[in-house]
Target: DNA mismatch repair protein MutS
Amino acid sequence: MLGAREELTPMLSQYLDLCEAHPDAVVMFQVGDFYEAFCEAAEEVARVCEVTLTKREDSTGTYPMAGIPIDNAASYLEALLDAGYRVAIADQVEEASEASGLVDRAVTQVITPGTVVDEELLSGATATYLGAVAGSGEETALATVDVSTGECQVTSGTERRMSEELDRLAPAELLRAPDAPDFELGFETMATDADPGTFEADAARETLSAYVAAPDSVVGSEAELRAVGGLLDYAEYTQGDDGPLEYVSRVRRYDPERSLQLDATAIRSLELFESRSPRSGDTLVEVLDETACALGRRRLASWLRRPSVDEGEIRRRHDAVAELLDRPMARETVREHLSEVYDLERLVSRVSRERANARDLRALKNTLDAVPEVKAALSEVESDPLRDLRDSLDELADVRELVGEAIRPDPPQEITEGGVVREGFDDELDEVRATEREGREWVSALEERERERTGIDSLDVGYTQVHGYYIEVTNPNLDRVPDDYTRRQTLKNSERFYTPELKRREDEILSASERADALEYEVFAEVRADVAEEVERLQTLADSLATLDVLTTFAAVAAANGYVRPEMGADSVEIEAGRHPVVERTRSEFVPNPAEFSAGHVAVITGPNMSGKSTYMRQVALIAVLAQAGSFVPARAARLPILDRIFTRVGASDDIAGGQSTFMREMAELTDILHNATEDSLVLLDEVGRGTSTTDGLAIARATTEFVHDEVGATTLFATHYHDLTELVEDLPDAFNLHFTVEKAEGEDGNPDVTFLHRVADGASSSSYGVEVAELAGVPPAVVERAREYVRESGAIPADANGGEGPDEAEMRTSSDDAPAGESDTSADAQAPTNGRASEGTLAAYVDGIESDEGAEGTTTTGAEADVLAELRELDVAQTTPLEALNALDDLKQRLDERDRNRD
Ligand SMILES: Nc1ncnc2c1ncn2[C@@H]1O[C@H](COP(=O)(O)OP(=O)(O)OP(=O)(O)O)[C@@H](O)[C@H]1O
Model:
């Protein structure tokens, strides 16, 4: 088609020019009320949007064509975005009636996943980011912008840190400077090849200078400068290349270290925003999201994604929540008024992009109306943070008044067809409108006058779009028509006429009406431009309202769910009667549990399947996240340290299936923890090692526990079914055992009936009740019985990773037991693992071998084993890649196997 360009019609040629200028996008070309695509693009559009593929025929040939209605474009555009396309919107930029030949068209917006601004395509709850990476190594920079609100941020650090930050923000579209690393990302994004030149320092400085007076002063390095420059240049391109985006009023530099680090794995496994299985129900954000407006909703997500590490800031948030909790009236009044607040950030950006219509301006006014009410509700507050917030609320009375006086209360969607500007706001407009009104009044009185003058009672005055005003006379009365009537139209039973005066009035009305519409648009655009001048003040207001919404939400949630203020800055985690904020909502009776973890201590948590280990560990982490985000926490009391990072490593079968082998992934995540956890971190390890053979898994679990204890010093909770691991605690001064208790009664069939108490207690558990859980889950009785036989035959030592030493009467509190739960069994537990110690070849024997350097009986540890153990101890896990770890394990295992063969 391109080859025959000169033979094309001017319109198709114009279309192709735009396609050439936007080679990475599908150009949707306005033709009247439709956006059309032609040729190959038409075929794609028809397929993706499920619209009919039609044909366009002109003097030069026949071309495929597919169109979507402009009025209803959002869902089609969404389908194109979802299918991985960028869409360039080519609008008619002059009135068809004014065009001398071909109507001029220009790309006014390139819609891409990271730069959508249309309300219908955006989610209110989460920000949609466009990201750009520049630099590499230690000096890697990441810049992000939310084009719908103008929030622009930049940060830098090591490649690893930036990769984590990317995971956390999950931009919908990512640009890379030529020198940027090719990250492996854990989320879906559109990779966009932006013009490499825009990432060069000089070009970037030039781009940024349109936003800030001294570009180099707002960024921390050249990499940051380049990332922001490339980013904003592309953002401008997508918004029609119309110069700088006014509503990006600041570029905020931040340091990810200044927030509690939660990588994508932690965010996922703690189920902050998404539940890991459809069954598991709610997420943390759902429990907390009682926000009144979209501003608060996004702020809440951002605080949860990035809880603070600034003790002062956390205290300020807690102070505010405490006072709002004490003032229910003020709180509810604030929330009520905040619910009238529109999405101010996006509204402001539409105003500034000249995309706001009159309804948007009225929404802005309604939002501003709420501000004095909110301030009044806070008039009595005493805490510093709330007083500061209240005082920072700018009522923007000037803007509110301007919009109130200029724009009608209930304007139409369209801004070019009148009905937008209030009377009394613009004299010229009022005059033109008066002329129009007078004309119309004259016409409406005409019928009466003409009936009187002609004596024709059935005479009608009417109007059609095509013929204009007319006087209609039925056929039987035609003889009474006066001389000054001129025939306009003949119908079956009547004739239509006009008079010179009617014609004059008609012209007057039409021209006044047209002029009024045009004037209204002009006045509207001026008002909008005046509002756009106040972008920064409006953004500051939006910021304060967002914060206030989240703080009142925290207070409302605390009031509804019985949360308490945590004391921050403690040395250790001390939680009295803590609860899991999400699980407690789905369970009718949730059992609160205490937590006491000194900094750097390792708790090995055992307990039967389903007893509550994972819930407990996550509950500790969620309480920390909530506290550092500024919320109160589900507990009777809590004293908490300020954590720098939370790591989670959950067992293989709990994992969402990824492309990687689950074991490889487990090891990669473990490596990450061992490398990066600090003394201020909280590490949750849930069944580490489960993804491989029992022997290897246990070895890894032991080595990991030792390493975390000796080298990392992070507060660690390790849930495991490797009961043998509980013995390790004896060798490690800062490690201790916890377990979950169950109640056992003898069932009618003589087998144990198990009730989960979900209660944590000191000491180790020695039973897993895997068989009982299987029975509870409905595994057929024959299988359950057979399993019980196997357990008995194995001398109470199960052969799988879920094993413990089998039901151990001494360890379990029976229902007739008088002792309080979790106490009577503790001392027995400590001995439990030594009961029934198995002979060589069993799992326990293997661990025995590992534990005793000298060899417990001289028979368990052979020379080969001792070598293997020595090597295992030598292994610097923190310096070992997952692949090396696998190879090392394989090697160790082979040597042990060889030893076994030699023995045979
Ligand atoms: N404190 C609690 N109060 C009430 N119910 C609880 C409590 N803790 C956990 N549960 C419920 O018990 C079930 C099992 O909990 P969880 O997954 O934490 O057990 P687990 O010990 O980690 O199990 P597994 O070893 O099989 O992974 C969950 O459905 C949860 O809702």
Summary: Residues 652-659, 796-860 have pLDDT under 50 and may be disordered. The two ends are 78 Å apart (CA to CA). The chain has six domains: 2-111, 122-258, 289-395+534-561, 427-528, 563-834, 844-904. The chain is about 45% helix and 20% strand.
